[in-house]
Amino acid sequence: MDLRSEQLAEGIEKISLVGRMDSVGGHDINTRLAALVASRKMLAVVDMSEVSFLASIGIRTLVVNARAQSLRGGLMALANPQPVVAEVLKMAGIDSIIPVYPDVDSAFSALVASSAESR
């Protein structure tokens, strides 16, 4: 599993996940994602477009990091999950904990709007 990060406009961090978030892939990125997301207040869009499989370890990784970000006063959103991954997120109720958007642009706009409201 691979993790790439880039800074977008408005101070939003785009984190792209690539691969399978199963026991091996989830373990591979868990520490790196936590170091990036849970260590400081931020607005983060996690691009899930290249995640082909999502298991419980991957769900846990996403939820733990979203909650840590929330506790710091930041926000994390998921974007563009493949249909099978979107179904897992919905069945597990993750979409009620972490907002899920159909694409990165929608997630970006929602984070910008949320940030403006909280000022």
From TrEMBL:
One Pfam family cited in the UniProt record for this chain: STAS
InterPro entries reported for this sequence: Anti-sigma_ant (IPR003658), STAS_dom (IPR002645), STAS_dom_sf (IPR036513)
Residue intervals of the STAS domain: 10-111
Family membership noted in the UniProt record: Belongs to the anti-sigma-factor antagonist family.
Family annotation (NCBIfam families): ant_ant_sig
Designated name of the protein: Anti-sigma factor antagonist
